[in-house]
Amino acid sequence: MIARVALLSLCTLVIAAPPAGAATARVSAPLASLDLSDPLIAQEWWRAAVHIDALTPPGPGVPVSIVDSGVSFQHPEFVGDTNIVALNNQEPAPIGGVHGTAVASVIAAPVNGVGLVGIYPTAVVRSFDASLGDGTRLPASDIVAGILAAAHAGRSVINLSLGSNLDDPDIDAAIAEAVRLGSLVVAASGNSGDEGSPPSYPAVNAHVLTVGATDQSDQPASFSSRSPFVDLAAPGVDIPVATALDNSFAQESGTSFASPIVAGAAAWLWTVRPDLDASQVAEVLRRSARDVFTPGYDTATGYGILDLAAALTAPTPLRDSAEPNDDAATAATVTTRTRVSGRTSGRVAAYEDPRDVLRVWLPAKKRLVVSSTSTSGVSLALYQGGIASSDRLATSTRMGVTTSLSYTNRKAGRTAYLVVTPARGVRSAEYTTSLAAK
Question: Which H or E run includes 383?
C-alpha cells in the first residue's frame, strides 16, 4: 500500500471577482518601492502584519522550492513569468493544481497589474508536483522524490504545506538530506487546532522551521495546530491567492498559506544576507519575530509573528555547521589521532535540534578534558561505540552556562562521541566547546 500524506488545507474558499484584464496577464515589471498597482493588493492585509509594506524586495536570488500539487502555469498571474520553474511534469488538471498554485502565488505572484503580489514577487519558485488522483492527497514516495529533487537542484528554501498524523521515515531521511545539502525546510504546523492539535508530520520533526497561522488581530487562528515545535507564526486567515479552479482569485485560510509567507521571507532574507547558512536564517527569523499572544515563547505562535523588516537587520547568530549531526553516523569530527585538541561551536534546541554529536579521539593513557560555555546552559556526555545509555563513559560535572567533563582513557586510543544537549529546562542554547588531552 502506498503511504499517503494529506495536504494541509483547511480553507474557507471565497471566490473573488476576477480583476479587469485578468485574461491577458502581462510579464512582470521591475518592482519599485510601494508602487503596487495589482488589483488585490488592498486585500493583502498580511503585508503590514509582517512589516514588508515599506520594503523593496531584491531581485531573484535564493529559490523557493514547493513540494505540492503542482502549479498551473497558464493562470493569468503566472503567464509569461519565467521565474516559475517546473522540477517535474506539472499535471494540475482537473483540480490538482489548486493548492500548489495558491501556495506559489503567496510566495511570488509578480507585480504585473493582475491579481495579487506575493511576499517575494521576484523570487524564483521551483515546483514539484507530488499530487495523486484529485490532487488533494500525496503519496509519501512522491513527497520524498520532491524534497530530494529540490535538495539536489541546489540550495533553496523548501516549503512543505502538507502533513500527516503518521511519521514516515523516508520523508524524515529526505528532510535530513536536504538539510545536509544546505537547504532550509519550512513546514505548516497543521490545521487541527480545533481538534486537540494532534502531531502533524513533518511539522513536528527536528530541523524543520514550523509555522503557525494568525489572524488580522495578531491572534492565533483557531484552526492552527499548537505544539512545542512551532517556531513562529504568519498570517493565515483570508489570504488572497490565485486559484487554478477557474483561473481566478480567492481568499483562503490555513497554515498552508502562513508557511509560504515565511518561506518567501526566508528566501528574501537569504538573498540579501548570503553569508548566512540555513540554520542561521531560521534562527534570525525566530529571534526577530514580533512577540504576540502570550509574552515570550508559546506553542501557538512560537517566538511570534514573522517580522521581515527586523530580520533584515538582526544580528548574525552563531554558525551551527555540520547539521544534521544527531547520531554517531552523522557526527562532526572535532579531534583525531593526530589532532588531540580542538574547539567547536554550535546551537542545540530542545525541539528543533535536540543534540549535537561530535566525534572525538581518546588518546591512550590520557585524560580528555572538555569545557563548554553557553548562552543558557548545555549538558555534556561522552560515549563509546554509539550513543546508547549503555555506551556512556562520563557526563558533565555540572550543567549551566559553564559546563565541564573529564574522562581518563586507560585503554588504547579510540574514537568516542561527545553529545551536547540543552540543559534541563532550557529551550535553546548556543555553545562553544574546547577539548584537550592531558
Answer: strand 366-384
4-312: CATH topology: Rossmann fold (3.40.50)
Residue 21: per-residue pLDDT: 37
pLDDT of residue 36: 77
Transcribe 103-151 into DSSP letters. HHHHHH--SSSSS---SSTT--EEEEE--BTTTTEEEHHHHHHHHHHHH
Q: Do the Cβ atoms of 85 and 73 come closer than 8 Å?
A: no
> Residues spanned by CATH 2.60.120.380 within the chain?
328-437
Beta carbons of 54 and 34 less than 8 angstroms apart: yes
| pTM: predicted TM-score of the whole model, two decimal places | 0.92
> Which secondary structure element, helix H or strand E, spans residue 368, and what is its range?
strand 366-384
Fold of the 328-437 domain: Jelly Rolls (2.60.120)
Are 433 and 372 in contact, with CB atoms under 8 Å apart? yes
Q: How far apart are CA 240 and CA 260, in angstroms?
A: 13
Q: Classify residue 104 as exposed, middle or buried by CB count within 10 Å of its CB (0-12, 13-18, 19+).
A: buried
**Predicted confidence (pLDDT) per residue in 78-106, tens digit:** 999 999 999 999 987 666 799 999 999 99
Residues involved in catalysis: 68, 99, 256
